């Protein structure tokens, strides 16, 4: 017979942004626990609302399966003495297994007799196993945890009730002073206490007391109500999946409503209104069918339609107060020039160990010009990048951004346009922070891409030079995120940028422009920065499902051109499926391994006069043929040239003793292999590849 189990934790309101992940964690932990106890089940379904976190497990087995187990003990010569009597070792082993020496048998293991005891372990009933759900609950962890009353136990929010029903029976356990039962609660204002009949009757009893405990049902109800509002008013509610998730997890009995605000607020940039409504009030914005923002908003109440007009008026008053502040800040900012705000940045610290924000902009001007020239921007684009980099942080000193920090960059774009900067300068300013996450939107303009990259590399170089390097999980200045953004911009823009030379060059440019932080040695950290960027490439390639050994190979080479490294990974990832891949890699890695026995610095010249067989000459000619322009080749072409050496390399090793007794011959042959090795390492450390 199969069973159904219901587990519910009744608690104080869970933060909306943590509700979904918390429910998923409960599902994951419960499933892992049951599997560890060998209890089979069909499905675990999560249910959650602000004050309820529950799972229902269907298809539970009656009990654990019985197990016949053969337990091995000491060898026979240890278990019995010379007279055949049982030793203490045998007696102790048998007792430890809940048996006696009468139960001992002998079995040969690799020709040696050992003591064994055959055990039949009776499976425990599922009702007993389910008491372990206490440990499932108490083992949960959350980003935000609380203690309450006199207890040291911590949970996401204080627990008030526990329901644990196996079919219609209560599974007894206790957390702190709270015992499991069958009682739960409805809506805090509309509902009342509920006594659950059994594990199969859960969603409907709560619904009858104004709690929609199924998140999918709540979300669909909100969407249906939104559709009805759109049809009634003839406008469109702007979709926002993240806001929809948060709102869904804020309510147990959702009722959508719309409100209004003064049209004069529409004079402000639309982003000000949208962000103020979304982030501060959790309101949805409204547009007409041409995409123009309207002076309405939509929100969701946790309750019914009673006194809804009062709720609407209250929400309108709160929003009006915030927008009154916003329009005051907007008018203040519009009465001052961009130069006014830029000059104020001279007193704003970027970091007290590095420089002011104004000085950071001076460095970024230099970096952006160098980068722009290197990636092929034209004169007009370089002029726009220069202007953007001179002012791009000005909005940090505006009243609007001081009040709404999340508008950084957004207000820079809006104010730049309103203060008659050209659209390319404004767009670059608006794109300076992109991407803001590992999958965030990238800058769309060449100017914005250059400004964003220049800003990020300046932050990484200066923080590293100041000794503030991310370690472990610590990254207070989000340098990993910024490095990831740099990698993604390079990938999207197809920029070839040898990083070591680029860093060295921009430090020289900064020095010449007298904007380098005098107390920081940025060049000294170049090696650490390159490793740091390589780590970011690893993350990007892992996300692209590139094989681990390919990642190790390309990041272990000598190239510091990030795009070349990523493209090489794709080439090798595809080549590994081709015939001949193993043979080619075997030949090239043999060269790598032997050449490690020599250390040559600088340029190497092979003396052809020391060649003793034709294979040395043939390999030398083959290498000379593929060398011209090799370092400028795309990875696919470089790989093709390298693998063309396979036959010449194999014949060379068949006929040539590299580690000859004659020192001059040995050195010459190692030089010959080192030249090839350097070409291989430009592509990657192919010795890291796993070939079968």
TrEMBL record:
<keyword id="KW-0547">Nucleotide-binding</keyword>
<comment type="similarity">
    <text>Belongs to the class-II aminoacyl-tRNA synthetase family.</text>
</comment>
<dbReference type="InterPro" id="IPR015944">
    <property type="entry name" value="Gly-tRNA-synth_bsu"/>
</dbReference>
<comment type="subunit">
    <text>Tetramer of two alpha and two beta subunits.</text>
</comment>
<dbReference type="Pfam" id="PF02092">
    <property type="entry name" value="tRNA_synt_2f"/>
</dbReference>
<feature type="domain" description="DALR anticodon binding">
    <location>
        <begin position="588"/>
        <end position="679"/>
    </location>
</feature>
<protein>
    <recommendedName>
        <fullName>Glycine--tRNA ligase beta subunit</fullName>
        <ecNumber>6.1.1.14</ecNumber>
    </recommendedName>
</protein>
<dbReference type="GO" id="GO:0006420">
    <property type="term" value="P:arginyl-tRNA aminoacylation"/>
</dbReference>
<dbReference type="GO" id="GO:0005829">
    <property type="term" value="C:cytosol"/>
</dbReference>
<dbReference type="GO" id="GO:0005524">
    <property type="term" value="F:ATP binding"/>
</dbReference>
<keyword id="KW-0067">ATP-binding</keyword>
<dbReference type="GO" id="GO:0006426">
    <property type="term" value="P:glycyl-tRNA aminoacylation"/>
</dbReference>
<keyword id="KW-0436">Ligase</keyword>
<dbReference type="InterPro" id="IPR006194">
    <property type="entry name" value="Gly-tRNA-synth_heterodimer"/>
</dbReference>
<keyword id="KW-0030">Aminoacyl-tRNA synthetase</keyword>
<dbReference type="GO" id="GO:0004820">
    <property type="term" value="F:glycine-tRNA ligase activity"/>
</dbReference>
<dbReference type="InterPro" id="IPR008909">
    <property type="entry name" value="DALR_anticod-bd"/>
</dbReference>
<dbReference type="GO" id="GO:0004814">
    <property type="term" value="F:arginine-tRNA ligase activity"/>
</dbReference>
<keyword id="KW-0648">Protein biosynthesis</keyword>
<dbReference type="Pfam" id="PF05746">
    <property type="entry name" value="DALR_1"/>
</dbReference>
<keyword id="KW-0963">Cytoplasm</keyword>
């Amino acid at each position: 017979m199969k069973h159904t189990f219901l587990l519910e934790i009744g608690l104080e309101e869970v933060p909306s942004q943590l509700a979904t992940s918390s429910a998923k964690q409960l599902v994951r932990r419960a499933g892992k626990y049951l599997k560890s106890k060998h209890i089979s089940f069909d499905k675990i379904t999560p249910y959650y609302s602000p004050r309820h976190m529950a799972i229902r497990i269907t298809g539970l087995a009656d009990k654990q399966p019985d197990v016949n187990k053969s337990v091995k003990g000491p060898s026979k010569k240890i278990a019995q003495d010379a007279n055949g009597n049982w030793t203490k070792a045998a007696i102790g082993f048998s007792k430890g297994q809940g048996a006696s020496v009468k139960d001992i048998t002998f079995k040969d293991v690799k020709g040696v007799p050992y003591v064994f005891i055959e055990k039949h372990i009776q499976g425990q009933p599922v009702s007993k196993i389910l008491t372990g759900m206490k440990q499932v609950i108490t083992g949960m962890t959350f980003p935000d945890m609380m203690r309450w009353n006199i207890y040291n136990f911590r949970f996401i929010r204080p627990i008030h009730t526990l329901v644990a029903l196996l079919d219609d029976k209560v599974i007894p356990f206790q957390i702190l002073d709270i015992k499991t039962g069958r009682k739960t609660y409805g809506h805090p204002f509309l509902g009342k206490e509920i006594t659950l009949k059994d594990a199969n009757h859960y969603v409907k009893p709560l619904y009858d007391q104004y709690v929609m405990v199924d998140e999918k049902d709540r979300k669909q109800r909100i969407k249906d109500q939104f559709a009805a509002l759109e049809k009634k008013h003839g406008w469109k509610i702007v979709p926002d999946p993240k806001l929809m998730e948060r709102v869904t997890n804020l309510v147990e009995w959702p009722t959508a409503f719309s409100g209004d605000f003064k049209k004069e607020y529409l004079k402000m940039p639309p982003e000000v209104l949208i962000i103020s409504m979304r982030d501060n009030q959790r309101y949805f914005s409204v547009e007409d069918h041409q995409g123009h923002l309207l002076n309405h908003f939509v929100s969701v109440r946790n309750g019914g339609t009673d006194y809804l007009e009062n709720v609407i008026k209250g929400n309108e008053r709160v929003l009006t107060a915030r927008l009154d502040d916003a329009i005051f800040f907007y008018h203040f900012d519009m009465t001052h020039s961009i130069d006014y705000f830029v000059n104020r940045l001279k007193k704003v610290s970027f970091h007290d160990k590095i420089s002011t924000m104004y000085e950071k902009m001076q460095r970024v001007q230099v970096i952006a010009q160098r980068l722009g020239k290197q990636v092929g921007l034209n004169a007009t684009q370089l002029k726009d990048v220069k202007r953007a980099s001179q002012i791009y942080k000005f909005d940090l000193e505006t009243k609007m951004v001081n009040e709404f920090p999340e508008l950084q960059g957004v207000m820079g774009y809006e104010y730049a346009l309103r203060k008659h900067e050209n659209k390319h300068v404004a767009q670059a300013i608006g794109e300076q922070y992109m991407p803001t996450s590992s999958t965030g939107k990238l800058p769309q303009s060449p100017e914005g891409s250059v400004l964003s990259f220049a800003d990020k590399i300046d932050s990484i170089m200066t923080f590293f030079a100041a000794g503030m390097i991310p370690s472990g999980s610590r990254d207070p200045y989000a340098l990993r995120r910024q490095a990831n953004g740099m990698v993604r911009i390079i990938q999207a823009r197809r920029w070839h940028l040898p990083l070591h030379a680029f860093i060295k060059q921009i430090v020289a440019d900064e020095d010449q422009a007298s904007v380098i932080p005098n107390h920081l040695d940025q060049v000294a950290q170049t090696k650490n920065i390159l490793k740091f960027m390589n780590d970011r490439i690893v993350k990007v390639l892992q996300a692209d499902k590139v094989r681990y050994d390919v990642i190790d190979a390309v990041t272990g080479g000598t190239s510091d051109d990030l795009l070349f490294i990523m493209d090489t990974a794709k080439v090798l990832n595809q080549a590994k499926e081709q015939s001949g891949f193993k043979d080619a890699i075997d030949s090239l890695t043999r060269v790598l391994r032997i050449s490690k026995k020599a250390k040559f610095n600088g340029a190497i010249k092979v003396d052809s006069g020391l060649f003793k067989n034709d294979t040395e000459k043939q390999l030398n000619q083959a290498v000379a043929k593929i060398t011209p322009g090799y370092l400028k080749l795309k990875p696919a072409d470089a790989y093709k040239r390298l693998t063309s050496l396979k036959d010449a390399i194999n014949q060379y090793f068949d006929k040539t003793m590299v580690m000859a007794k004659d020192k001059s011959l040995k050195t010459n042959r190692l030089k010959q292999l080192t030249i090839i090795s350097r070409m291989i390492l430009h592509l990657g450390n192919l010795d890291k590849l796993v070939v079968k």
